[in-house]
Amino acid sequence: MTGIPTLDTAVLWAGIIAATGGALTVLYRWGRTTRRGLKRVGQVLDDWTGVPARPGVPARPGVMERLCGIDDRLGAVESQIAAVEHELHPNSGSSMRDVIDRVDARTAAHLDDKNP
After folding, report:
1. pLDDT at 115 exceeding the cut of 70
2. Which residue, 49, 75, 80, is CA-closest to 88?
3. Which of its termini does the chain have fewer beta carbons within 10 Å around, N or C?
């Protein structure tokens, strides 16, 4: 070093303070980044499992509960589509298509009778 004990001690302490400050800065930034990442993981877990209601905030269902709701609604839509599908094709005479075909046949026969 310099050979001056007081100056050597001051340089040593300055180096220790600088190294400690740098290490604390790195640790702070690492901790902040880690905290943000853990917060995001917590939000994903809350979305997955759902959140119970609390004062002023309604409950949010989890992913599995929402999927069950979607399955129930899909079953209702499929039954409605089946009912509409039944009405669109000729069958035993009770579908809307059969009724329209009968009306069309009667109208065509009636027009043929009037136009000889």
Report:
1. no
2. 80
3. C
As given in the structure block, the two tokens for residue 8 are 């050597």
Distances (CA, A) of 59 to 5, 30, 47, 51, 56: 68, 34, 11, 6, 10
* DSSP structural state of residue 55: T
Helix (H) or strand (E) holding 27: helix 5-49
Indicate the residue type of 111: L
Tell me the per-residue pLDDT of 62-101, one tens digit each, with 9 for 90 and over: 988 898 889 889 988 999 999 888 888 888 787 888 888 8
User: Above 90 in pLDDT, residue 22?
Assistant: yes
Query: pTM of the entire structure?
Result: 0.48
- Residues 40-52 as b or e (16 or more Cβ within 10 Å = b): eeeeeeeeeeeee
Which amino acid is present at 6?
Answer: T
Residue type, 109: A
